[in-house]
Amino acid sequence: MDPFLPRLETEERRRRGRLLFRHNKIPVRMLVPNFFTLLSLCAGLTAIRMAIEQRYEVAIALVVIAALLDGVDGRVARALKAQSKFGAELDSLADFVNFGVAPTVIIFVWGLGGLRGLGWISALVFALAMGLRLARFNATAEVEKPKWQADYFTGMPAPAGAITVLLPFYLHNLEIIDVRAWPVLIACYTLAIAFLLVSTIPTFSGKLLGERISRDQVMPLLVAIAALVALLVTYPYGTLTLGTLFYLGLIPVSYRRFEQKLKEPVPEPVSASSDAARFPGAGGRHDEATSETKH
User: Which residues contact 123 (CB under 8 A, 6 or more apart)?
Assistant: First the structure.
């Protein structure tokens, strides 16, 4: 046996460890966002089981919970400064299961099974569109864009797509119309949502709205969140129906505002020479102070 073999294996394990984590010991705070991601993944996997058992109400509730947890883990990671490549990959995997596979199983078992092949194809297209949408998001995450474009997604985001595609189920349980009797319409609607996922239509994200809020808006915001949770618990299908219709109606508005923003002239940066010409007494120390104020 080669005496250098154990040493080489140890070095190989260390090298692989450095590829995953930068240090041998990592802060516990780095694991907190991944905990929320794993919770959302558990919710999505359990939703698949509930759909197979035809417990659709529980399945949809778990998809909504997974969407809420998906919004939490990213904000927790930024707040704790715990972003990592491992967490980003885990989050993308969880998103595909929660918002691609779980809604596909729910909508197929509930409303598309009667169409057999056509129903499965439409559900499959939705799942593939969700995977492509997530892959495009990961590929373009590092692309530099103007700050105002952070307020828009390219295409429909994954959580919104998962909740929106289940609109026929919400309408059916409101007992206004027997949506389940029209599986072809359900299939067409599913394909339409799949198109919105992979499209380049800008949709409003609201990321910039969450950066800062005034003190006067804190209490009304908390009351609004509590009221929304109460409505979801008391009138789940009515609340989800109104929310979905409102979101779909907001897409043309966000597209129009995005196009208007693109047509606005971009302000030219002021160079240091022009500042010196306008303010002859300004020196390097003043520029450093200005820079610190900006940051």
Answer: 104, 105, 107, 108, 112, 190
Tens digit of each residue's pLDDT (9 = 90 or more) over 240-285 = 999 999 999 999 998 898 888 877 776 555 554 444 444 444 444 3
Length of the chain: 295
pLDDT in tens, 161-171: 999 999 999 99
What three-state secondary structure class fits 203? strand
Measured in degrees and rounded to the nearest 5, phi and psi for residue 283 equal -120, -170
Report how far apart the first and last C-alpha atoms of the chain are (Å, whole number): 60
Amino acid at site 143: V
Q: Which domains does the chain have, with CATH numbers?
A: 24-264 (1.20.120.1760)
Tell me the backbone φ, ψ of residue 204, rounded to 5 degrees: -65, 130
Nearest to 225 by CA among 68, 41, 73, 37: 68
Q: Answer yes or no: pTM beyond 0.70.
A: yes
Alpha-carbon separation of residue 25 from 8, 17, 174, 215, 293 (angstroms):
22, 11, 53, 39, 35
Angle at 247 between CA 43 and CA 40, to 5 degrees: 10
